[in-house]
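FAQ: What does a ligand-bound record look like?

Like this one, built around flavin-adenine dinucleotide:
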Amino acid sequence: MSAVMESVGFAPVAKPVDAMLQSVRALADGPLAELADDIDRRGIYPKGILQRLGELGAFGAHMAAGGEAPDFGAAIQAITEVSRVCGATGFMVWCHDVCGVYMEQSGNPALMGAALANHVAGHTLGATGMSNPMKTFAGIETLLLKAREVPGGFIVNGALPWVSNLGPDHYFGAVAVVEGDAPREVMFIVHCDGQGVELRNCPSFSAMEGTNTYAVRMTDHFVAADKMIADPVRPFIGRIRAAFILLQCGMGLGVAQGAIDSMWQVERQLGHVNEFLEDRPDELQAELDALTERTMRLAQTPYANHKEFLIDVLDARAHASELSLRAAQSALLHQGARGYLMSSAVQRRVRESHFVAIVTPAIKHLRKEIARLSAAEMPA
Ligand SMILES: Cc1cc2nc3c(=O)[nH]c(=O)nc-3n(C[C@H](O)[C@H](O)[C@H](O)COP(=O)(O)OP(=O)(O)OC[C@H]3O[C@@H](n4cnc5c(N)ncnc54)[C@H](O)[C@@H]3O)c2cc1C
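The answer part, i.e. the structure of the complex:
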């Protein structure tokens, strides 16, 4: 049984999920731990690790494909196990997992079947360019991609500033506004090697360097019917929104767990003075366990979309961000100078926790949505 599951006192789960989580944990503690510093500081993209995660079944738990019932809790736990060791890789697992949700929920046969099977197995790698649409639907931005309807599909133009987990043979979900008298949005898959698609390097980030994050420019890029995820988009987003956000909780839970683990590492030597700090590891662990339990409960109905449920999901995601920020900061205070070394996972985790807090939906975005939904009389 995984430490995450042990720590929240869950009864042993069905064997295949348990085995999957154990092997994900072994991969994270072994090869991924060795690579984490290179991912963070040298921008090494861990493609082999991602492919191995696919082989281990980490990308399939939340999919109905393959005869198994979808298990979002297991998918979140897999992201947690990875993020505990490397937040950047945990984020890329989320990118890939949520792209799988787009494909499966599209109902488009061309994105399901063999394409989805290859995605779930990690033979192909996917991503998500949904920050801009998510912020647009929350009234924070306007859509950056514009589409024109043509026979057989759409012509798309525009640029997205940041899309992670990309490569020449990768693909991602995106949304464009179809301009005209009655504008509407369409959602589709973009292949990075598609005609009119160009990846541009981003400036250096303070963390997440190995996430293969690019700006993507599309110039008269043709989207055919076999790439369509949703038309119109808003009902589709309404259906998958909670699943999108819940899967992200794994990043926050994992970064927080990694931080707590590093506090215990110095407890024997420094406990006599660390006891004067706030956010001690036992307190944080109790809070993390309660949040994990709450997340697992919410994950039992990932496609529910009534208002109270959505507020609960948004609040759990905000709590995961806040807890990872607090835990990462406290870990640094607990570890002192050794945690301040550039090679230390403790200071890396501080920067990763900042990312958990600003990636869409950022804490401010979550709070805005909670306020909007709480005030709304209409259903979400
Ligand atoms: C490392 C990294 C990886 C990311 N990966 C993805 C991904 O895979 N998919 C995805 O969809 N999104 C991705 N994002 C975007 C991310 O989800 C957020 O949307 C982004 O961090 C900003 O969110 P925010 O809500 O804090 O907005 P804010 O930063 O508060 O505001 C965003 C607005 O500020 C402006 N702005 C921000 N930065 C600049 C700048 N440098 N120059 C000019 N104007 C600017 C823009 O107009 C934008 O509308 C990534 C971001 C980072 C840093």
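Follow-up question: can I read anything off the structure? Yes, for example: The first strand starts at residue 126 and ends at 128.
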